[in-house]
TrEMBL record:
GO terms for biological process: mitochondrion organization. SUPFAM superfamilies: GST C-terminal domain-like. It comes from Atlantisia rogersi. Residues 127-146 are annotated as: Disordered. The lineage of its organism: Eukaryota, Metazoa, Chordata, Craniata, Vertebrata. The chain crosses the membrane at residues 102-124. Residues 6-69 form the Metaxin glutathione S-transferase domain. The gene is Mtx1. GO terms for cellular component: SAM complex. This is MTX1 protein. The keyword Transmembrane helix applies. InterPro entries: Glutathione-S-Trfase_C_sf (IPR036282), Metaxin_GST (IPR033468), Mito_Protein_Transport_Metaxin (IPR050931).
Length: 146
Protein backbone atom coordinates (compact mmCIF):
# COMPACT_ATOMS: atom_id res chain seq x y z
CA UNK A 1 0.00 0.00 0.00
CA UNK A 2 2.83 2.39 0.92
CA UNK A 3 4.71 1.77 -2.33
CA UNK A 4 1.51 2.19 -4.30
CA UNK A 5 0.83 5.55 -2.64
CA UNK A 6 4.42 6.69 -3.23
CA UNK A 7 4.26 5.66 -6.90
CA UNK A 8 0.99 7.54 -7.28
CA UNK A 9 2.51 10.62 -5.64
CA UNK A 10 5.49 10.54 -8.02
CA UNK A 11 3.17 10.15 -11.00
CA UNK A 12 1.06 13.11 -9.86
CA UNK A 13 4.17 15.24 -9.36
CA UNK A 14 5.32 14.32 -12.85
CA UNK A 15 1.96 15.27 -14.33
CA UNK A 16 1.92 18.57 -12.41
CA UNK A 17 5.46 19.46 -13.52
CA UNK A 18 4.77 18.60 -17.14
CA UNK A 19 7.36 20.22 -19.39
CA UNK A 20 8.03 23.21 -17.11
CA UNK A 21 11.43 23.85 -15.62
CA UNK A 22 9.99 24.38 -12.10
CA UNK A 23 6.58 23.72 -10.61
CA UNK A 24 5.47 27.36 -10.78
CA UNK A 25 7.16 28.56 -13.94
CA UNK A 26 10.72 29.60 -14.72
CA UNK A 27 11.90 30.37 -11.19
CA UNK A 28 12.06 28.02 -8.21
CA UNK A 29 9.68 28.28 -5.29
CA UNK A 30 9.66 26.71 -1.84
CA UNK A 31 7.71 23.76 -3.24
CA UNK A 32 10.59 23.09 -5.64
CA UNK A 33 13.04 23.00 -2.73
CA UNK A 34 10.81 20.63 -0.80
CA UNK A 35 10.17 18.29 -3.74
CA UNK A 36 13.83 18.29 -4.75
CA UNK A 37 14.88 17.45 -1.18
CA UNK A 38 12.75 14.30 -1.42
CA UNK A 39 13.44 13.30 -5.02
CA UNK A 40 17.21 13.78 -5.26
CA UNK A 41 18.14 11.22 -2.56
CA UNK A 42 15.61 8.79 -3.99
CA UNK A 43 17.12 9.24 -7.43
CA UNK A 44 20.81 9.22 -6.48
CA UNK A 45 21.09 6.88 -3.47
CA UNK A 46 21.72 3.16 -3.70
CA UNK A 47 18.70 1.54 -2.12
CA UNK A 48 18.18 -2.09 -1.08
CA UNK A 49 14.76 -2.15 -2.75
CA UNK A 50 14.80 -0.14 -5.96
CA UNK A 51 11.10 -0.37 -6.96
CA UNK A 52 10.34 3.25 -6.18
CA UNK A 53 13.66 4.40 -7.62
CA UNK A 54 12.93 2.58 -10.87
CA UNK A 55 9.52 4.23 -11.08
CA UNK A 56 11.12 7.64 -10.54
CA UNK A 57 13.69 6.91 -13.27
CA UNK A 58 10.85 6.06 -15.65
CA UNK A 59 9.42 9.57 -15.13
CA UNK A 60 11.88 11.42 -17.36
CA UNK A 61 10.67 14.93 -16.56
CA UNK A 62 11.28 14.43 -12.82
CA UNK A 63 14.76 13.05 -13.53
CA UNK A 64 15.51 16.06 -15.75
CA UNK A 65 14.10 18.31 -13.01
CA UNK A 66 16.52 16.87 -10.41
CA UNK A 67 19.47 16.95 -12.81
CA UNK A 68 18.69 20.54 -13.75
CA UNK A 69 18.57 21.69 -10.11
CA UNK A 70 21.75 19.75 -9.27
CA UNK A 71 23.67 21.33 -12.13
CA UNK A 72 22.23 24.81 -11.48
CA UNK A 73 22.65 25.02 -7.70
CA UNK A 74 25.24 22.31 -7.00
CA UNK A 75 27.59 22.43 -9.99
CA UNK A 76 30.43 20.68 -8.14
CA UNK A 77 28.19 17.68 -7.38
CA UNK A 78 25.70 17.69 -10.22
CA UNK A 79 27.04 14.74 -12.13
CA UNK A 80 29.55 12.03 -11.60
CA UNK A 81 31.83 12.36 -8.62
CA UNK A 82 35.31 13.41 -9.59
CA UNK A 83 38.28 13.30 -7.31
CA UNK A 84 39.58 16.80 -6.62
CA UNK A 85 42.95 17.51 -8.15
CA UNK A 86 45.51 19.51 -6.22
CA UNK A 87 47.28 22.12 -8.34
CA UNK A 88 51.03 22.29 -8.00
CA UNK A 89 50.97 25.69 -6.29
CA UNK A 90 48.74 24.47 -3.45
CA UNK A 91 50.89 21.41 -2.78
CA UNK A 92 53.80 23.72 -1.95
CA UNK A 93 51.68 25.58 0.64
CA UNK A 94 51.18 22.47 2.79
CA UNK A 95 54.11 23.20 5.15
CA UNK A 96 52.70 26.68 5.75
CA UNK A 97 49.26 25.24 6.35
CA UNK A 98 50.61 22.90 9.03
CA UNK A 99 52.57 25.76 10.65
CA UNK A 100 49.45 27.92 10.73
CA UNK A 101 47.46 25.12 12.35
CA UNK A 102 50.09 24.63 15.06
CA UNK A 103 50.29 28.38 15.69
CA UNK A 104 46.51 28.70 15.98
CA UNK A 105 46.42 25.86 18.52
CA UNK A 106 49.19 27.50 20.54
CA UNK A 107 47.47 30.90 20.49
CA UNK A 108 44.22 29.27 21.62
CA UNK A 109 46.00 27.45 24.42
CA UNK A 110 47.71 30.63 25.63
CA UNK A 111 44.41 32.50 25.52
CA UNK A 112 42.65 29.83 27.59
CA UNK A 113 45.45 29.72 30.16
CA UNK A 114 45.48 33.52 30.37
CA UNK A 115 41.75 33.56 30.99
CA UNK A 116 42.07 30.85 33.64
CA UNK A 117 44.76 32.83 35.53
CA UNK A 118 43.01 36.20 35.24
CA UNK A 119 39.62 34.90 36.33
CA UNK A 120 41.09 33.05 39.33
CA UNK A 121 40.21 29.56 38.14
CA UNK A 122 43.89 28.64 38.35
CA UNK A 123 46.41 30.21 40.72
CA UNK A 124 50.08 29.56 41.36
CA UNK A 125 51.34 29.36 44.93
CA UNK A 126 54.95 29.09 45.87
CA UNK A 127 56.07 26.07 47.86
CA UNK A 128 58.31 26.22 50.90
CA UNK A 129 57.72 27.67 54.33
CA UNK A 130 54.97 30.12 55.00
CA UNK A 131 55.15 33.07 57.41
CA UNK A 132 56.46 32.32 60.93
CA UNK A 133 58.30 29.27 59.63
CA UNK A 134 55.23 27.10 59.30
CA UNK A 135 54.76 24.60 56.53
CA UNK A 136 51.58 25.04 54.52
CA UNK A 137 49.00 22.48 55.57
CA UNK A 138 46.53 20.65 53.48
CA UNK A 139 42.89 21.63 53.85
CA UNK A 140 42.06 18.43 55.72
CA UNK A 141 44.78 19.07 58.33
CA UNK A 142 43.49 22.62 58.97
CA UNK A 143 39.97 21.33 59.59
CA UNK A 144 41.24 18.72 62.05
CA UNK A 145 43.07 21.37 64.12
CA UNK A 146 39.93 23.46 64.57
Amino acid sequence: QLYRDARECLTLLSQRLGSQKFFFGDSPASLDAFVFSRLAPLLKAKLPNGKLQQHLKSLQNLCNYCTSILSLYFPWDGGERQLPTVPRGEAEDDPHKRRNQVLSVLVGLVAMLGYAFLSGIVSIQRGGTGPAGRQPMALEEEEEEE
